[in-house]
């Protein structure tokens, strides 16, 4: 979680909401408090921040909190001068209309954004009158998951200035605490003694309350030492094989992770993508991770290695026992894996399934062992006879027949995570994203460690049919060392005399069976001095777990099953006020002197939405503040992630006109694009124009490309290569790499320089008017010097502008405003353009400020100044 109060000017996206600059304003933050209560793994966290506007005029005050992506927001409120404004949880579809209206009018309506790998950022601003107070309160809940033998509570702190700050955590575990640890990434020798920890048999109290002076980097500094993560880790005692059952107010929860079980041998096939897109760092990290995994594999396990691109290349035709000799030979094989070609996921996975089935039939594997496939891929299937995603899922599910587990690791930002997620869940496994970064190899190893040591398989947890109903999932394929199974349900009555719990599973040498009588803990007796009311934690834990499982079920099965799961999850989300992927929290801010404010919407992000954000951030914002592109007829889109905004304009000219898009004289880089028109004049009389050809030159590197809707010509080192869009291919050279995805995209990577992505838009060949066309996108534009120019190039290093005077436009959903840019005052309109990088067919809508008249006033000079005489000409 991150707690942050900002007093500097908000992003320009908000600038038209206020009449005065806040740069001279003074905001005094009274306090920031994070209060976390954990009751039998169920965490209830309340973040409270109080601030005072000390200025003699009103201003916006910002509040930000980072929370785990596994948590559900349950409440948000603002108190301003005694008036309380409370968020309301609504069905997402009903809130969407309010959201769209707010976005189209230029207001940032979304409160929640992805933040890093495991967190989400909730942010809101409110206009506070002069010398007035505001209190923000955000509450969220989650069930802590046990991984590698411990639970973790993470609080992220980034106050930017010394404030009265306090972190308090109270952990109540009737099962008994085995250890509790608290540390922070920012703890110095001076701050370390300020972490107070009191631990008894079944309760822990942790607090961290540095004074403002203790937070300062130096006595007279405004900066603070508090900047990073405060982390609490703990585990509970596990004396009972049956596990622990908690019963409170008509609901129960059963935690099952028995001690001292021997591991079950596993048979694992590693299916490794080595296609061209894995080139470079990804391939190096994959080899590094696989070497570490093989080095640690248990000698009782069996393993196989399959590398694939458009070809399937198994190390051996069957699995091998993990003897020292076999492991050493497998490691030698891994060291020699190199990237090339396309991505034939279907045949690669089916080959692994076939290996396991044949070795089972031939009794080459231990009878009591676990079969699994671990797929590592970074892209979409583009090769082989089968590239249709649902067909691949059907093929794999049918081949596995419920007899093995599949784990899918999606590497990077371009992988289709939804495809992998569904395929894993259909086959008793899970999918996990591996984020691009220096620690990618450690992420791969970390995931493997979670599934490396099975303890039980086919685990059934049973309860009397006449005593409980509304059970969460009570059958699990495997229990892994360091994890935990959690089942919750509702009691039909309070008669606990017949509440018998039974657990069955398959162990290494024999079946596991345990039975016991459940009993309720007297919480008042166990915690006699506590003011905290434990009353409904089991019910809310049950609701949280039920909703999470229903949301997972809504991704697989028949359309009817998915619809029923979605409907039940929505009903429970509304009943328990959880912000899930089906609901939104609507926060109505108070009216200001500028008029009524639009409602703000807090959503729960899906993994696909997180990936979309991260993909954009990775390609655009990681190194640069701007992402210029041209696509459509032709639409120029300048995305500015750091400002949460975008600018756009059109260029209208006759077909055949060639425009200079990028020109950088010191490196000799040139990109020109030629327009094409409709096949014939449409009924409305307006001929649309699109880009149909691009010419790319890097004189110093000796590279020249011509890209049309039909083919690609590559000249490098005086060698000419012809490619067709119907191919999937990669071309590697000393100065340039190309990766062509069939009928989809071409990525051009210039050595130590910029990357260009060209998208192919396929149009039905019998369409009476339209024809195929191209889109052009720039990545890593920060690598070009400030001397770069052109219709796109002039924006590669950002642009300064301000927007004000929001007013109704000709269309209700598209208001007008005044933009101040390059010393000029322009009339602009709030509109939409589409970014096709993620979805080449439909595109993603991007709200932007549209500049009229061929971008006049925004671009340097006039559009005609960028017309050149040839595809590889400078003028």
UniProtKB/TrEMBL annotation:
Entry's Gene Ontology BP terms: hyaluronan metabolic process
Keywords carried by this UniProt record: Glycoprotein, Protease inhibitor, Proteoglycan, Secreted, Serine protease inhibitor, Signal
Sequence ranges assigned to domain VWFA in this UniProt record: 267-451
Subcellular location: Secreted
Domain of life (superkingdom): Eukaryota
Function field: May act as a carrier of hyaluronan in serum or as a binding protein between hyaluronan and other matrix protein, including those on cell surfaces in tissues to regulate the localization, synthesis and degradation of hyaluronan which are essential to cells undergoing biological processes.
Protein name, UniProt field: Inter-alpha-trypsin inhibitor heavy chain H3
Native source species: Gasterosteus aculeatus aculeatus (three-spined stickleback)
